[in-house]
Structures are given as structure tokens and as C-alpha cells.
Amino acid sequence: MPDIQIKRRLREGKTVCVLSGHHNTDMIDFLGQFGFDGIWIECEHGPVSWEQIGDMSRACDLWNMASIVRVNANEPWLITRTLDRGASGIVVPHVSTKAEALKVVEAAKFGPIGLRGMYGSRRSYGVADYFQKANDETLVVVLIEEMEAIRNLADILTVDHIDVFFVAPSDLAQTMGYTGQPNHPEVRAVIDDAITRIDAAGRTAGALVTDENVDHYRELGARFFLTGWTNWVVKGAREFRATIDRFNR
Fold first, then answer.
1. This model's pTM is above 0.90
2. Is 118 a domain residue?
3. Active site residue: 23, 45, 161, 216, which one?
4. What's 51's domain CATH number?
5. Does the annotation mark 216 as catalytic?
6. How many domains in the chain?
7. Helix-helix angle 76-84:98-108, to 10 degrees
8. Tens of pLDDT, residues 5-50
């Protein structure tokens, strides 16, 4: 199995960064040279196919980056098949109760921890004790993105074998009555409080960050950062366009 270090880094108390954006295999291969910890492969809202999960995860493996796939539902067959396609991590949306969090673990882990369907997949090729190693190395992320989850957070945090509790702003804002306003002060206050509580419980908090707010979330205790590389393209493109426009004045 590739030497993917994201879980080890989290266990050591270090901060990790995962990139979201418009991905294909060539873009993942290009981004690998910069040393990021993982790539967020979007299968809840994005166009990624089952076949593409295999190829994208292989591109991540070339650079020892985690291939972290967000599925669109907390369904055992969906989680199992995604991992069988070669993903090294799973993100499950709308985990709002302890029972739902336990369901994620059961689907993502082989026995004796869970009941993930027994299948080797490509990650098992040439690997002794694959099932144990898969349990050790598969990254499990749950999304805290509804007010129900915030109310049940203390119970959710008691579930073992979840590596990251990621506080997702946009859906949370919607359940608070602020659709399309993830930066509303009341939404931000709830996010900040949730991250602080996750960290205080000795668990790993995840946050969606930008260049401007990453220090803020690190100070609150978050250590799993997701950021979109497309933000850097937008910033650079606008600055360069402004430079060219000066020549035409």
C-alpha cells in the first residue's frame, strides 16, 4: 500500500491540508508535487464516476496523497463500493446523530470493528494482512452540517474510529435559516463553538478554510483543513487581468 501519512500526522497532533476543486487525473498529478496531504474527490455534488474514482485514487497514490471521496449518502453499499474502488478515505455527509455516526464506522471498517463487505479491491494487491491494514489506514470523515448535529455533537463525539469531525458551513447555514449565507455572524459563531468543542473532546476538527481565515480556525483547534485550489486561480487570474488592463487605459 502507498505510504499515505495523513492519519499518522493527525495522530501526532499535526495539521493537514486537503485540496478540493475541479479534479481530473492530470490535475491531481500536477498538484501532488506541492506536498499536500490529500485530494477531496467530490461525489456528492460532482460528476465523478465509479471508474474515475479508481484512476483519481491512483494519481493520488503516486504522490502518497490521501484520496478522500465524499459520497452522497450514509449507505453501507455506497461507502463499501467507494472504498473498493481504491479510495483511501471516505467523507459522509449529514451525520447528525450518534446512530448515524456508528453506521458510518460499521460500513467503513472490516471486522472486528465494523461489517464492511469483504473484498480486497486493488489496494489489497500484494499486501499481506490487507484487512487489518485497511482498518488502520482508511481515513473516516463525518460532516457536521445541520443544527441537529450541533445539538447532538457531544454524543457523536463519543463514537470511536472516526478520524475527523468536519464542520461544514453551507448546509449548516441553511438549517439555521441563512441559506446562501455561510459567513453570517450567527453561523460563524456556531461553527467556531463546534470546532472548539470537538477539540476540547480530544477529537480532530475539520474546517473549510481560505488564505484569510486559516489562522483563525487553527487557533480554535481545527487541524484538518479543506481549501479549494480554484481560489488561488481566481486570485491570480484577477490580478494578472488587472495588470493587462492597465496597458489599455
1. yes
2. yes
3. 45
4. 3.20.20.60
5. no
6. 1
7. 40
8. 999 999 999 999 999 999 999 999 999 999 999 999 999 998 999 9
